[in-house]
Known about the structure:
Order of helices and strands: HEEHEE
Structural class: alpha+beta
Strand content: 15-25%
Helix content: 55-70%
Low-confidence stretches: none
Number of helices: 2
Number of strands: 4
Oligomer: single chain
Amino acid sequence: MIRINLLGLPKKRSKSRGPVISVGGGANMTLVGLVLLVAALAGNYYYYNKLTSDSQKLNADLSAAKLENTKLASAKTRYQERQKQFDLYDHRVKVIHQLQASQTGPLDLMNTIAGTVNGTDAVWLATMNDDGNNINLTGTALSATAVANLLSNLKKTNYFKNVEIKETYQDESVRDLQAFQFTIVCEKQKS
């Protein structure tokens, strides 16, 4: 048999049943549940707002980084173009300096030989050949002494390591005066 108490009066308990455990009033449990629910909702709302603001900040940083990247890319291309122009101009300058440096060698040689021949009386050059290590001179002199003076003057220049006469002979085709044809080999100093 089942009994229902509609009046809400407490029942008398029989001592045969064990102790009754009471959880508390119904109103207290509802209030605790509501507080926990509000706290959970507030925590979720705070976490959602934090994630949203972090996402917006990261998107703003990303767009700023992309803008900076495009600026740097254009600056890099301008730098590379200017670097190519600089390399081209630098190469041109180096070629010009190299040509100027190589210009002085033959110029010094010509000045040395011209000064030596002009400083020696009664000597004229007909040809001068440069074969790398040696300079071959051919010409005419009015006497054998003039050829000997030319040899000693060439040695005094210190431009040549060795100066030798290859051949000299009296030219019989000239009738009015004495003329000697000569060939001289001059070995250049190593620089």
